[in-house]
Amino acid sequence: MAGNPAKVKVRVAPSPTGFLHIGTAQSALYNWLFAKKMAGTFYLRIEDTDKERSTKEFEQDIIDGLTWLGLDWEGDVIRTSDHLQNYRAPLEKLLREGKAFYCHHSQEELEAERQRQESEKVPPRHECRHKELPLGKEGGGIIRLAVDAASDRKIVFNDVIRGPIEFKAALLGDFSIARSVSDPLYNFYVIIDDAEMEISHIIRGEDHISNTPKQILIYEALGLPVPLFAHLPLILAPDRSKLSKRHGAMSVMEYKKDYLSGSLINFLGGLGYTFSKDILSREEMTAEFDLAKVHKSGAVFDIKKLNWINAQYVKRLSPADLRQAAGLPDISDAAAPLVTERLEKLSDAREFSYLWSEPEYEADMLGWKNEDAHITRTALERVKGVIENWDFQDEKILRGRLDSVAGGDRGGVYWPFRVALSGKKFSPDPVQIMLVLGKDEVIKRINIAISKLS
RNA sequence: GGCGCCAUCGUCUAACGGUUAGGACAGCGGCUUUUCAAGCCGUCAAUCGGAGUUCGAUUCUCCGUGGCGCUGCCA
After folding, report:
1. Which of A52, A125, A128, A195 has the least CB density, counted as fewest CB within 10 Å?
2. In a domain, A31, yes or no
3. Which of A116, A146, A180 is the last residue of a domain?
4. Domain boundary among A147, A180, A213
């Protein structure tokens, strides 16, 4: 052990009862960063014990999402359903040793007890007397861990992110661990799975803090080594409530149409951790990452910041990567910079279709500041003349000639020229667009504009 | 109600116990200008409240308040 610490093994363990959402993705990211940083191993374990709610569709979404984000895991996907036989023996052992027992109270009785406790303002817990009775040995009821209600023991664990956290053991009650020896509940099977995989650090959301003392008790009852815990802050909606579908708790895959995976990773990473700069790669994040420095408080999911980060990434995209990411093979190499400089969301790239196909627009858009149609038309005809006589070499000469056509207010020339090429109220400079389209296409579009004004 | 976690600009955050409390996003204003974008410059904006420790507290302690989580035969 000395000088040779155990190898770091971490996992992300989503249940396929919903899509891969932002919170799970961030949790996966921090597990992944920690594993890379410590030269450890990162696993993906699908917790599909809830047969009613788990689906293959959700499982695939989780796999697709993590793959898209580039959070690669070691080996095959692990499924709890593949080793259901692992749970029976330890459960029977606990039962045999009297550390667990069968509780035969009905759900109505438990509910009444809980309500009574709330009204009496005492801690809610089920102190089950069946554990001392022969009844506790008889199957049929739910299996609970026997917890000493008279104990004054404090369960303490040293959270890597938050420091020491303690709970009074007596307040836990005899909590449930399985429906039967062949049907374990979360708090039980998660421990068996983590122990079998020799997980060294359990890095998960802070909503699991209050599960931790229960799990520690199970580790102890089973004589298993207790791993280290690190509880991550939650990602919040703009109103600081829990992130809901309305605010973005949909599938991470929904982001693919608008955002680069690097942007999302960058954004998620920065939401719970302070890196040295705003924009950095997965590798740079890994180099800087220190689990103990993850923040403690929840952070609001600010889509504006994500948009800005994405814009930074998009600006650096090569033409080929832009075509690929936006799914628009028609964007030419020359057109690409015009697009990337203005793009916040990938799906908006189609707004620049005038760079590769003829635009459609109304004639009245061509006029600069309510100018008469014939003035606009004359301006366009002169622009056409200039372009026909230009060699497509020296841009400066062209701009000079256009300026002199305009005389004082250059908008009288540049606005209709620009609209003739783009059909848009807003677009890049017409000369830039012209360089993308080429002479023939430009003349063609100017002629169309002129005909619209006739 | 019980238990737990958390608390700096609107948002994400920085600040060996000593700073004019810094940066980024958003907002606003400007430069440039033929529209947009980008870029650059500027600007607005915060230590939840109260005690205590200390020469000195955003920082340490306690109390309060607030937000959130858990309180399932869900995970």
Report:
1. A52
2. no
3. A180
4. A180
Residue A426 is part of which domain span? 358-452
Is the pLDDT at A318 greater than 70, yes or no?
Answer: yes
Angstrom distance (rounded) from CA A153 to CA A231:
23
Closest nucleotide to A231 by C1' from CA: B5
d(CA A218, CA A175) in angstroms, rounded, equals 10
Residues A142, A107: contact at Cβ < 8 Å? no
Q: Residues in chain A, how many? A: 454
Least Cα distance to A367 among A247, A453, A278 occurs for A453
Please give, one letter per residue, the 3-state secondary structure of A402-442.
HHHHHCCCCHHHHHHHHHHHHCCCCCCCHHHHHHHHCHHHH
CATH for A169: 3.90.800.10
Q: What is the helix (H) or strand (E) element at residue A44, kind and residue range? A: strand A41-46
Longest CA pairwise span in chain A (Å)? 104
* pLDDT tens per residue, range A130-144: 988 888 888 889 999
Q: Is the CB of residue A268 less than 8 Å from the CB of residue A302?
A: no
Nucleotide nearest to A241 (CA to C1'): B68
The pTM of this model reads: 0.94
At A248-295, the pLDDT tens digits run 568 999 999 999 999 999 999 999 999 999 999 999 999 999 999 999
Between CA A302 and C1' B25 the distance (Å) reads: 9
Q: CB–CB of A258/A326 below 8 Å?
A: no
Give the H/E segment covering residue A397: helix A395-406
Task: Report the half-sphere exposure of A372 (CA within 13 A, side-chain side).
Answer: 3
Whether residue A178 contacts residue A143, with contact meaning beta carbons closer than 8 Å, is answered with yes
Contact A382, A342 (CB under 8 A): no
Nucleotide with minimal C1' distance from the CA of A406 is B34
Q: Are strands A176-180 and A142-145 parallel, antiparallel or unpaired?
A: antiparallel
d(CA A314, CA A309): 9
Contact A158/A209 with Cβ under 8 angstroms? no
CA of A188 to C1' of B73 (A): 13
Q: What is the pLDDT of residue A214?
A: 97
3-state helix, strand, coil in chain A (%, to 5): 50, 10, 35
Residue A369 belongs to domain with CATH number: 1.10.10.350
Q: Which strand B bases fall within 7 angstroms of a protein CB?
A: 1-8, 10-14, 24-26, 33-39, 67-75
d(CA A424, CA A360): 9
**Is residue A1 over pLDDT 50?**
no
pLDDT band of residue A94 (cuts 50, 70, 90) is very high
